[in-house]
Amino acid sequence: MLDRDGFRPNVGIILLNQRNQVFWGKRIRTHSWQFPQGGIDRGESPEQAMFRELHEEIGLMPDHVRIVARTRDWLRYEVPERYIRRDARGHYKGQKQIWFLLQLTGQDWNLNLRATDHPEFDAWRWNEYWVPLDVVVEFKRGVYEMALRELARYLPRFDHRNRYLRSGMRTREGEHAGHELPNGSILSGPPMELPPGATFEPNPQGRAHPCPAKGKHAT
Asked: Going by fewer Cβ within 10 Å, which terminus of the chain is more open, N or C?
């Protein structure tokens, strides 16, 4: 289903955990990482398509998440011709997307990459909010930046001061002060157990993206 300009209606999903980190999925049998996304079927609203894709791609149900915000308008990107099937060339141009910002209200173990017989991802991890701008495939970078910038104003706010005080109290009381992750950073509290498919692997490009820079391939 294409519009008159050759763009397929699509939804994108930015899923937050309780630390405002975002879900980042590795496309099955590739080295490409991306946010969950998928097409809007005929007769579906963007919200209905979002919940369907949420379950099909990462196994979550509506009661596992809370909708925080969505983009106001369609965001578009063009797909390079080399990624377009031969039979679609000449009339398919790319994607136009509505992006949703979701808060995970369930647990990490509710995520299931094998919820259907046709999985999209074979691994996943939590990333800091802006990291995907450094590692997403080039032709999607512009729409990722527009979505992340527009939705950043709705990020839930946490009381970091109280969390710091609680961490300091634990350390002074002689409890475990922290442990080292593979990237050399220190995580306070006891070691974390990761659910199946998750990884502590750092940004595959080896770069952090603490703030935005100014300035599935063809799916």
From this structure: N
198 band by pLDDT with thresholds 50, 70 and 90: low
Q: Which two tokens stand for residue 7?
A: 């763009």
The sign of the torsion formed by the CA atoms of 106, 44, 26, 28 equals positive
Q: Which residue has the tokens 């910038």?
A: 149
Residues 83, 212: Cα–Cα separation, whole Å: 27
29 exposed, middle or buried (CB, 10 Å; 0-12, 13-18, 19+)?
exposed
HSE-CB of 106 using CA atoms within 13 angstroms: 15
How far is residue 76 from each of residues 44, 70, 127, 130, 143, measured CA to CA in Å? 19, 15, 24, 19, 6
Cβ(5)–Cβ(107) under 8 Å?
A: no
Q: Amino acid identity of 82?
A: R
Phi and psi at residue 208, in whole multiples of 5°? -90, 160
- Report the distance separating Cα 72 and Cα 32, nearest Å: 28
Report yes or no: 165 and 172 within 8 Å, Cβ to Cβ.
Answer: no
Provide the percentage of residues in the chain whose pLDDT is more than 70: 72
Judged against a pLDDT cut of 50, whether residue 52 lies above it is answered with yes
Rg (CA), the chain: 19
Kindly state the DSSP code that residue 136 receives in the 8-state scheme: S
97: which 2 tokens?
């997307």
